[in-house]
Predict the structure.
Amino acid sequence: MSPVAAIAGLEVRRFLRDRSNIFFVFIFPLLLILLLGSQFGSSAASTRVAIAGGAGTTLEKALAEQLTSDRLQVYSGSPQAIREEISRGRTDVGLFISEQAAQAFDDGVQAHMEVLTASQASGQAALQKVRASVQIVSSRQSQLSALMKAGLTGDAARAALERSKEQVHAPTIDLVDTGDVSQEFRGLGQFDLGATQQLLLFIFLSSLTGAVALIQARRLGVVSRTLAAPLSARQAVSGLALGRFGIAVVQGIYILIGTALLFGVDWGNLWLTALVLAAFSAVAAAAAMVIGSLLDHDGAATGLGIGAGLVLAGLGGCMVPPEFFPEPLNTISSLTPHRWAYEALADIQRHDGTLADIMPSVGVLVALAVVLLAVGARILLRSLGRAL
Amino acid sequence: MEREPAPPLTGTALTARNLVKRFGDLTAVDDVSFQIRPGETYGLLGPNGAGKTTIISMVAGLFPPDSGSVDVTDIRMGPSSLGAKRHIGLVPQELAIYPDLTAEENLNFFGRLQGLRRKDLKSRVALVLDLLGLGERAREQTKKYSGGMKRRLNIGVGLLHRPLLLILDEPTVGVDPQSRNSILEAVAQLSTEGTAVLYTTHYMEEAERLCDRIAILDQGKVQAEGTRDELITLTGGVDRINLIGTGRMVAAAESLRTVPGVQQVSGGGLSGLTLTVTDGPALLASIITNAATAGMAVTSVELTRPDLESVFLHLTGKALRD
């Protein structure tokens, strides 16, 4: 094993062995992705409809069955609880069934229900879906009534309707929001966006906070022992840089595989995603070298690492999607490596982007990595001298 | 422990010529030259700040001298002299080991840096762990080790690749007496096996016990160099006896001047008498008898033999630990 590989391997091993990393490197990112996906993730199955009142009535059962078969999430609750959920944006539509409405439905006459919709844009789309479902239930009940009035027994009428359902397919509604932002996220799974954002955030954050290892190596005296071994200072610096890169890649691969397996995140073309991941990890590793070389104090390096990691992630679209950024912030955002990596991953995930499509973003990342690596290696070399 | 004489000269393990190193206005090392033969232990003795670590850093190729040169065997040493670096083992003053790794992992890592291959590395690691008495705790993180165990491992890393020249920078700082003794014995053993040792310390006793030759350093300069006995002759090689007591001090002084072997008697006041003698232990009994006969009631006697501390004091006018 070459000295460069030995140093790099040791850096990665020490990072993986550090118990304080278990939570923040391995558990926390996936928890965050789960939380964000559950709360804000977009998915057809995530339209939530609540039914209040009418428990056990024909109307309630028919509505719940139809809404579920239309792939909406249905739950029951008290009117007060449902109003609160809707006001907080956690439920899209609420259906309130009164006793009169339930009775009217049973009697085959017109029934009136109160419907409450969330104020956000998704509420209106959800309402359309609910209307379609209610319409189907209403039609079926009218048909049943008509057949029974025509002399069929209830069972015979229901059987006739079931047969007709198999032969005639009711029209379905596919709602399309033509807004740019909605179009941009169209087709994304519930956890896809959050996974992309947290992938970039945590690769950079873990790398920057891991810069402390460079400071510790100088303080421990292992630097002088390393440089007294038969290897050049350049080899030592290369090993340390490769170690930082390895740490970033390990963090990235873990999130990629973890989210794909646990949350079914679709990362698109894996080779292209790996290319973006490698370029972004190189930037993160180089930035970590700069911090670890400039500072001599663990606490300062950790503070700066966390601060810079979060600020850059925020600006780069890893907290709020950059599609929602106003123009001035959009311009500032493009100064961060996160934004370029985000754009490249978005191309791959959402638009089946090719190598040619992502090359501009990857090119910027590689250029950033080269510049930062050159600066980082130079400062690190100097800092090793300072350690002797 | 008495040291056996160094093996006969068969080439030179290390040659340092006219080393100079400046840091800004400070000349940390000023025209220092010395040689070490295989199997010889060479000591750099001096107080903190004398330039010992700077010399070691240049010898180990961590940074180059401003002028002068270092040759390990016949290979010129420098930061990129990988050939020369293969022959040295550096034991820095700090505990240069990873606390979150086990002893075995530390040795494996630094062994790889030294270019040891898998099979050789495995056997060398086992051997060194055994030598250091760390075999049973080889797979324990070193942060759980005592200070002495860490020091021993620190030395073990330097020995791993069987260097021709072992450089030890104050290896016993902060070590308990038992571990210290074990470290000194290990160094002496290496020397008898033919390893050249460059040993820095500010502990006079260690230099006296271990080193075949010693350079006394102060303010970056070699003040004197030689074997212990050669250095002691610089002070005149005489013992000093302090007599404290009461009674007829002047008469006692007169009487003591006539004792064969007594070269000089001074004092006579409350501080007592100070005698310079050629062989203190042999003369002690007759000196006390003479003083008593002359009317001095001796209450305290102190015999001071010349040592490296005296040499340092003699050469620099200050104590070694100043």
About this structure: Confidence is low (pLDDT under 50) at residues 1-9 of chain B. Chain B has two domains: 14-233, 239-305.
